[in-house]
Amino acid sequence: MAELYETPKGSRTHIAFFGLRNAGKSTLVNAFTRQDVAIVSDVAGTTTDPVSKAMEILPLGPCLITDTAGLDDVGELGGKRVEKTLAVLATADVAVWVDDGGAASGADAFRKRFDDECRRRGVTVLEYRRGDSVDALREKIASLRLADAAPGLLDGLAKAGDRVVCVCPIDESAPKGRLILPQVQLIRECLDIGAWSVVCQPRELPRVLGEVKCSLVVTDSQAFGEVKDSLASLAAGRRPALTSFSILFARQKGDLAEYLKGLAAVRSLKDGDRVLVAEGCTHHRQCNDIGTVKIPRALSKMTGRRLEFSFAGGGAFGVSSDGGAPALVVQCGGCMLTRREVLRRIGLCREAGVPIVNYGMLLAAAHGLAGARPDGLVDL
Questions:
Q1: Contacting residues for 236 by C-beta, under 8 A, at least 6 apart
Q2: Under 8 Å between Cβ of 98 and 22
Q3: pLDDT (tens digit, 9 = 90+) per residue, 70-114?
Q4: Domains and their CATH numbers in the chain
Q5: 124-128, 177-181, 191-195, 273-277: lowest mean pLDDT where?
Q6: Which of 4, 19, 130 has its CA nearest to residue 66?
Q7: Secondary structure of the chain in the HEC alphabet?
Q8: Rounded to the nearest 10 degrees, how much is the dihedral formed by the CA atoms of 299, 300, 305, 306?
Q9: What is the pLDDT averaged over residues 174-200?
Q10: Quick check: 121 pLDDT over 50?
Q11: CA dist 314 to 9, 209, 289, Å?
C-alpha cells in the first residue's frame, strides 16, 4: 500500500545511468541514492535488468533513479539486455553516461550510439567519470530545469477561489477504500492552486449544482452521459465548463490536436480494421472494464463496423512503421506515464501513419458531446 502515498512514476523526473559493463554504474547508483539499490560485483554483466529507486532530489523534486545493463553486453541474452537498456533511454528525462576512464574495445562506438539516441530523443545528457564527486553530480542534477516539464492539470481552466466539482463514480470497477490516481491528483492540484474541490457521484451532481456555484465540472469519462444530462438541465448562463480526468491528463501529457485528428479518423474505420487499446497501467480486468469492454463497445456503436481489438498495458505499446500497424490507437489518459512517454507514443503513431485518440475524447463523442476543444473543455 505504500505506493498509494508516494508520487506516481508518471509524475517523477526519470534519471537513468548508462555505460559499458563494469563501468561502475551500480556503484554510482548506490552512492547517489545512499542505499544498496543495485548489486555490485566485479563480474561483467552483473546488472541484467533495469533496477529503479524512487527518491526526492530538491529542488528538482520527485525522481526515479534507474540502473541499467551495459550497452556492450554480448551474446543472445546480452542483446536482450541491451534492448531493455535502450527501452529505458526511450523514457528517460536525464541520461548519465558513466565512464570508467578506460579504453574498452569499441567504447567510442557505443558512446556515439548513446549520444545519437539521446540527441534524437531530446534527452538531457550528463557525464560522470569514475572518481568524480557524487555530491557534485547530485547538485548538478538538482539544479536542472527541464524544458519539457508538464504543465499543471488545471492551467488556464481554474484559479484560486474557483469551485471545481469532481464527479467520481463508485461502481464495480472502483478500487475499494480509495480513489483512483487521476482523481487524487486533480484534488491535490485544486489544493495547490487554492481552488475548492467538491467530490460527488454522478447521481448527486444535480443537487451539488443546485447548491454550489462552480466554474468547472471534471467527470470520469464513463459518466459523461449522466453528467451531460445534469448540465443540460441548467440554464445556459449557469452551466459550468465541462471536461474529464482523462482529457485533462491528455492535455497535460499529450497532444490534443493530434488526438482530435484521431477522433475525426474514427468515422473512416472499416470492417476488419484492428484497433489497439493502450493503457499505461496494468490492473485486474473486471466484467465492465473500460479498456476491454466499454471502449470497444463505444467504437463499434459509433462506427457500425465489425472491428478487431488488441490490448496493451504498462510499458507495452506495439506501434511501428515496419508494417502490421493498427488502423487506430486509443490511448488512456496516461496518469501512470511520463509526458515524454506519451509524446513518444504519439510520435510513433505519427511516423507510422496511425491516428491516435484519447479515452476521454472518444467516450465524450460516444455520448454525443464534441470530443474536446483545443483547450481541453467539452461542449454540450
A1: none
A2: no
A3: 998 888 888 888 888 988 888 899 999 999 876 666 688 889 989
A4: 2-142 (3.40.50.300), 163-248 (3.40.50.11420), 254-366 (3.40.50.11410)
A5: 177-181
A6: 19
A7: CHHHHCCCHHHCEEEEEEECCCCCHHHHHHHHHCCCCCCCCCCCCCCCCCEEEEEEECCCEEEEEEECCCCCCCHHHHHHHHHHHHHHHHHCCEEEEEECCCCCCCHHHHHHHHHHHHHHHCCEEEEEECCCCHHHHHHHHHCCCCCCCCCCCCCCCCCCCCEEEEECCCCCCCCCCCCCHHHHHHHHHHHHHCCEEEEECHHHHHHHHHHCCCCEEEECHHHHHHHHHHHHCCCHHHCCEEEEHHHHHHHHHCCHHHHHHHHHHHHHCCCCCEEEEECCCCCCCCCCCHHHHHHHHHHHHHHCCCCEEEEECCCCCCCCCCCCCCCEEEECCCCCCCHHHHHHHHHHHHHHCCCEEEHHHHHHHHCCCCCCCCCCCCCC
A8: 120
A9: 92
A10: yes
A11: 12, 37, 16
Cβ(55)–Cβ(8) below 8 Å: no
Give the pLDDT confidence score for residue 236 in this predicted structure: 85
Q: What are φ and ψ of residue 324, in 5° steps? A: 75, 15
d(CA 156, CA 189): 13
- Between strands 94-99 and 13-19, the pairing is parallel
pLDDT of residue 257: 93
The answer to whether the CB of 359 falls within 8 A of the CB of 299 is no
C-alpha–C-alpha distance, residues 50 and 281, integer Å: 18
pLDDT tens readout for residues 212-251:
999 999 999 999 999 999 999 998 888 999 999 999 999 9
Predicted pLDDT of residue 3: 46
Strand 216-219 with 163-167, pairing: parallel
Averaged pLDDT of the chain: 89
Q: Residue 104's pLDDT is what?
A: 62
CB 333 within 8 A of CB 314: no
